[in-house]
Design brief:
about 270 residues, mainly alpha, 3 domains, about 60% helix, EcoEI_R_C_dom, DNA binding, hydrolase, endonuclease activity, Restriction endonuclease subunit R
Length: about 270
């Protein structure tokens, strides 16, 4: 049911905010407490009554003190099927008692309907150009995860402008949206798969990796191959949570999770001059 999926999304946001130490955690926590309070009103339903101990606990400050991602995940699984029992809150319609007044029509000439740079069109043109110059030293560095210099990016930017890939405004908009030219280009050309594998070569070397751990790392490598970089927050989204609902903590030790995040940040940093 849609209500259950919305609850899943709410609890996922709560888990991510807990991990990140986000100030938004308090606001989402309040929403969850309100929901379980509404569930308490449905105690006559046997399925709800069976989870009443948890429902009552989640409305106390004591339950939330020291709450963990695992506790939130267990609560999500136990309560998601009960959320549809909550009565839908319907907003009352608002009625107004006044008449519209239509003034004299005035002709207006509209200009500049482009709405600013067309970034998707620019990305397509830039991707084609970069494929044509794939042997350029800067492109090879970006693809193979080698550090860049400011000169590398300056030269590549000059080539793109001379080739008419886009306007200076489009290039600046793309750089702003991607936190720099290097990251913008890496997002278009991706990361060489062998380079991505090398970045994680030592990660599981000193341990007996399980099949799920290997698959989790392979999902990261797949993402890097396609997109060039990866925000560590993606580790707590699908397809990673399809394999481990609680994210990397469900498969790796805290030290290994820190190392995963560190590797992803190192890969990103190498695309920044």
């Amino acid at each position: 049911p849609e209500e259950s999926k919305r609850f899943d999304l709410l609890m996922l946001g709560l888990q991510l905010d807990l991990l990140r130490g986000s100030p938004r955690f308090k606001r989402l926590q309040s929403k969850v407490r309100d929901l379980v309070g509404l569930l308490e009103e449905k105690a006559a339903i046997p399925l709800v009554a069976a989870e009443m101990e948890l429902i009552l606990d989640m409305q106390t400050d004591a339950w939330w003190q020291g709450v963990t991602v695992d506790m939130l995940e267990i609560a999500r699984r136990r309560l998601r099927g009960l959320i549809p029992f909550i009565d839908r809150q319907r907003r009352k319609p608002i009625y107004t008692d006044f008449e519209d007044e239509i003034g004299t029509g005035v002709e207006v000439v509209l200009t500049d309907l482009g709405g600013g740079p067309d970034l998707e069109r620019f990305r397509a043109k830039a991707r084609q150009f970069l494929l044509d110059v794939a042997d350029h030293v800067t492109i090879r560095k970006l693809r193979t995860n080698r550090p860049l210099t400011a000169t590398d990016l300056t030269e590549l930017e000059r080539m793109m402008m001379e080739a008419g890939v886009g306007s200076p405004e489009e290039l600046e908009a793309a750089k702003a949206a991607s936190d720099g030219l290097g990251l913008f280009i890496r997002s278009l050309v991706g990361l060489d798969r062998e380079a991505a594998k090398r970045a994680f070569a030592d990660f599981l070397k000193d341990s007996t990796a399980t099949a799920n751990q290997i698959e989790f790392v392979n999902l990261i490598i797949d993402h890097l191959t396609d997109h060039g970089v990866m925000d560590p927050g993606r580790l707590y989204e699908s397809p990673f949570t399809d394999l481990s609902p609680t994210g990397p903590e469900g498969l790796f030790s805290p030290e290994q999770v820190d190392r995963l995040v560190s590797i992803l940040r190192e890969i990103r940093q190498r695309a920044v001059s």
